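Quick start: read one record
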Amino acid sequence: MKKLFLIIFISLFYQLANAGVNDIGSGGIESQRLEKLKSTLVNAIKEKKGKNIILYLSSGSNGWSWQWDSYKKLNDKAHTKTYKKCLKRAKKDTGEDCYLFAINDKIVWKNYDEPVVKKNIENIKLSELPIGDRVIAISLEEDRKQGRFFEDQPDVNNDYQIHIIYTLFKDSKDKEGDINGQLKELIKYADDWTYKTTKKSNKNSKTMNGEGQRIKWDKRKDGKLDISFVRLAITKKEMKKCAGRSGSCGNFFDRTIVNSGFNNPKKIYFNFGDYTYSEWPYSAGFPTFNIFGKHMGNKLKKSEFGYFALHEALHAMGGIFACSPKHFEGHNTRKTSDMMSREGDGRNLTLDPKNDDYWGHNNTSCPDLQDSVYFTPTSDTPFDPFELLCLPKEKWQLTKHDYKNFENRSMCFYSRQDVTAPWEKELGIFQK
């Protein structure tokens, strides 16, 4: 009898000691995070075919993290092991507890699809917000210098343009790249590089007849480049902490730019971050792309700037489209000399040399990036990336193409729940 009592007592003590292990989480999850978690589950099930998958999630003011593991049998030991691993990561990433999110393909998290409440940033001090939510430009008195602008200046015309944003972290030294001629020199180099590259690719184009094209850069009435200055609301250290396991802190640069009022649907915004960033230049989809003063431990070279600018600008315009014959993970092929390949080898970079995929092609069912309204001279049959990527076809006005095989809605950054677009409801922007 004593032996039986002891067994029951030990079993009960074990269950009480690990009472939090099997606790199921509850509450709304932002749509992009939810999609990421679902994708993680699908890939885990494929990778560990025949085994059981357990996934725990931790979400807090400093970010979010998760842990999944596979087991032959589902029991308390399996749950405890995954839970402890999750806690170890959460200690660094979120500072919060972990809760059970899913078992195999079943999401057990309660009310994960309820609307996520948005904070009114205007009524809250930025320092009180989680790092990843401080997506609004800050103003420092020392940043106010001669020739510097904090807002988009009046346009010379109503044409489509790419506007330049010069960003710094909260604690970055002001290198004055926006007012000392640094960016002006880089843009001129990129402009000439784009012209030579497109001219070579356009030699077989019936539309352009061998004529080179340039990007329509936003300029002020005095003819100079229109460059806006944005000081980010987080420090370099905070960015590194926030990025953690979830990429660029939820595209912090892009959200800050859009939420700071740079949201003209006839403009693409190029962020030149004059600081060190751990990743390559990238585009978050229309209307933004990013290049950094130092990336992946390498200082930006003038000789590579033209390639980065055109490559990422084409991504911001929607390319490479899934309907393109050689499409590979948002690019053209995996690794070739094509400048839009996933892992270009950097030698003799070409722009769709056979004109059979995304530039100067004859496939009327798929967009031709040569026709983008952001190039000059502009094609006689142009398309507007904003209409193409963000609006339903019945709302297209400038874009007259049919594009029967086109499907690329995920490239509209304005469709995110955490960015501000004043005309979102009126225009019916696609939601992810």
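Confidence is low (pLDDT under 50) at residues 1-19.
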